[in-house]
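It is worth pausing here to work through a concrete case rather than discussing structure prediction in the abstract. The textbook approach is simple: state the sequence, then state the predicted structure, then interpret. We follow exactly that order.
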Amino acid sequence: VQLQASGGGLVQAGESLRLSCVASSRMFWNNGMGWFRQGPEKEREFVAGITWNGGDQNYADSVKGRFTISRSNAENTVYLQMTNLKPEDTAAYYCAAARRAWAPTSAREYAYWGQGTLVTVSS
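Step two, the predicted structure:
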């Protein structure tokens, strides 16, 4: 089972990016999904999560109102739409599948992880 994240890149402050995370299996239909990030010399932190059916989302305070998480179970894909990007958003972004139907904020609650996709925001 694999999670493949993509969509990172170099942008200027104020611009937007959309990250995608494709699962190799439909086994994640019943799992909450999350996006985490890890900046230079920082610990991995929760960014956004979505329940198994997409009915509920939760966000870190630092990204509320700017980032939107969504999912398409039919396409085995989770998205993270990022707008009004700031230099402090610079990080490697990781998608992950939770052990539960909802999306906890703790990385310990996630069983499967994709590789990171790098987002760099210049000022």
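Step three, interpretation. The first strand starts at residue 3 and ends at 6. The chain is about 0% helix and 50% strand.
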